[in-house]
Each structure stands twice: as structure tokens, then as C-alpha cells.
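Input/output pair, single chain:
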Amino acid sequence: MIYIDPPYNTGNDHFIYPDRFSESREDYLSRIGDKDETGLMTREGLFRKNSKDGGHYHSNWLSMMYPRLFLARNLLRDDGVIFVSIDDNEVHNIRLLMNEVFGEENFVAQFVWKARKFSDTRSINNVSTDHEYLLSYSKIYEFSLRGAGRDESKFSNPDGDARGVWMSRSILGLATKDQRPNLHYDIVDPSTGKLFPPNAATGWRYSQSKMKELIIDGRILFPSKSNGRPREKKFRGEMKSEQISFRSIIEDTHTADGTKEMRSLFHAEIFAFPKPYTLIKNFVDQSTSKDNQDIILDFFAGSCTTAHAVLELNREDGGNRKFICVQLPEKCDENTEAYKAGYSTIAEIGKERIRRVIRKISDDQSGKLDLDGRAASQDLGFKVFKLRESNFKIWRTAIETEEDLVAQMQQHLEPLDEHAKIEDILYELLLKAGVPLTADIRAEEGFLLANNGEIALALERADEDVIKKILAMKPQKVFTLDRLFKQNDKLKTNTALQMKDAGIEFKVI
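Output:
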């Protein structure tokens, strides 16, 4: 599942991704070089305001969204679904855009969320816009939400009916007499003889013969009050489905709830207008399985509400869902409470929120037992990665002279960047090997084992003792650095032969 809450293009947004498809490569490289002393891109280099006065007001926003939605579709599993928060400014355009990217046939729903709990008295036209939208598309058309659970409090058995608890429902129909004349007739209460004529606009739900059967079977409730209408008894035990349809109008949580959630975690107004985690949690619950290690991605992460939602839902149902949150290190304005509290970027707020949610869940679970009497447990770990240049030197292909070629070959005698760290090298090699970043990593004496022992990495030593220990572990692949052999070609050759005899893929970098 993917959930995103992109900029709404209100006319005051400084786009996080100001793509300029008309600029030259040189201009682009010059712009992205605008960084401050900490290595973060400056606001001038990373952001630009998209004013409504501009001639490309909508196209700027759509040009930013299109490639990201296209990539999002590719990242979804075949049974995956995406939810996009948006408001009136671009809802019409993004629906057309998503029809193009995902296919109109894969449209799931356009949910209306009552974001504002109280009316906005500041409105210029005296209209309080209380709602926002969530657009949902699947990757394949067969997708459907799980549905909401039935409200069991609506069922009771006040008359002691042997068929069990029941609820009453309307028996009004949906057609006029001209449309369905067979549904327009008088119902007679057999106990009192009172007549109940049909509503001229709706008629009854059932034909007259079917209604007689229901009356004989004691399934029609007749009112004691003179202005009442007959209703039907629906027995809980006869309902085939445990679920009812998920409503397209969401009214039970509001933006103010998101603000309260952040305040309870940080004891300050750290982030403006965060989505309430309960809103996202409901959609995660509707779209994922608790037992399949489903991944929920949010690449407009902000304060990491999505991570909060996943952690809370896992706590509630014992699920093993995972989250990936992506956020640029957008700098916090120096006048904000976040900056004053020590958070220089929005990404730092998100990381700290996850830590505090985990700490709270851990404290709540401390000493508790599950249904089997075991200590309650939940995977509460998470990793943080920053996108950066490769740890390995890049081979330049645009070489014009023999001297340049010789110079580059000399430079690549040592392929690693001089500032490369062991941990960074480790994760880059794992990514290149197709191993997920969540793979387990275990430190052994002189080397590392990753992905349940599938891969061994000797990144600090490559002597006979380390090689012997690695062979004893019988990994499928081994990575090491050429410089660790210290020009001992005999040891390197013997190691390669030993690995080959053991059926281990051996790579020297």
C-alpha cells in the first residue's frame, strides 16, 4: 500500500520537487549545488513558490506529480493500492492524472474526509470548506477494501425471539408507482387491522407476496405509535458477511486530532496541520493483511504520520506490517516551534516522532501478556538511511586523451572513496546484491553475516583466519575488498579457489 499527502498547490506552496524540464543540464547542476554548510540544499536551490498568478500554475504541480505517481504504480504489488490526500485546488486534475497512470478502470473510490471539526469563520465567501479528499486507485481492478465491521451494539433481542439477536431496518423501496407498480400496496397489521399505505416516492422493498411471507414468519415489526412505519427484523445469525461496506464519507476524525496527537508526543506545536494517524490507520487496516509483512510506503512523509499509524495498528492486532517513509531534509523555518525545539529539518521531526511512538508502545506493553500467556511483543525497530553518492569511485566514460585514461586508471587502483565508512560500504554492497535494507546483520570475528547468513562480508580483514571462519559458515556469497589482501596474490588466489570448491560466489572489489 502507498499513502501520500503531497503539497495541495494552494498558491502558497514552495514545491518540494521543483522540476524544471526546460533548464539545461549545466543550469540544473548549478542549482542543485546550492547547499549550506551542513550539506543541505538551500531554499533557493530546492524550493520555488508556485503562485496562482503564474501561467503554469497547474502544469507545474502536475509535472511534479506525474513521474512520482508513475513510479508509485511500478512500486506497488499487483494487489496493491494507493491513497492520495488532496483538496479542491487540484482534486479534478489529479483524478485525470491518476486515470492516465493507473487506468480509469482501477479507480477504487473518492473518499470525502471531514477534516475540519468546526466551521471556518475566516472564509471570504462565507463558505466553510470543511472537507478534503482521499483518492484511491488499485494496480489491478480486482482490488476491494476489506469493509467495516458490523456494529454489534445495534443487535438485541428484546422480545426473546428464538432466532437470536436482531436489528430493525427500513422496508421502504426506491421506486415510484410508475416505475414499480408491484411495490405499491397497503400493508395490514394482522393484530390490529391497521393499514399502512406505501410512500408515493419509494413504495416498499418487497413484493406483496414476499411481504405476506415475512409477516407470517414474524419478521415485520408493526409500530405502536400512530405515526410509525413497519420495519423488518434482520437476524444477526442469518447475515452471511461479517463486514459491511466501508463508507466513502469519513467523519470520525479531524485535523484537530492530528494536532492533539503531536502535542501529546512533543508537548509543543511542532508540526502544522498533521493528518491524524487514525485516518491513515483505517486505510492501512482496510488494505493490508496483518500476517503478510505488508509494506506501507509514504514518500511525502512529513512528520511520519504513516509510520505512527502502522505501529499503532500492529499494536492493536498483533500485525507484522512494515513502513517506509521518505522525506527530504527540508529545513524548518527559524521562527517555528520545531526549530526552537532543536529540529533543523522536517525529516528530524519524523524520526523523533517514530522514536517517541515506539517508546510509548514499549512502555504500554511492558509487563503485559498476550492471549497465550506470553510476554506481549512487537517489532519496534526501525532504520534510518540517507541518500548520498556511491562509496565507490565512478568511472568516467567521457575520456578524450590517453593521459586522461592513464590518470583515471591510477585513480581507480583504489576503487573506494577516501571518506567511505564501513557501514556505508556494507549497505551499498547489500543493495547491489539485491538484499533488502531490513535484512538482519550479525557481526562475527573479523567479518559480517547478512540476510540469515546468506552473505558474508569481509570489509576490514582478509587474512587466512578470517577466510577459514567464513568458509565454516558456508554462506552463498562472499564480498571483500582487494586492498585487504595487501598485494598478497597467493592468498587471494587460494581464497578464490577455496570459495569455488565450496560452491560459494566470491567477489573482490
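The chain is about 30% helix and 15% strand. The two ends are 37 Å apart (CA to CA).
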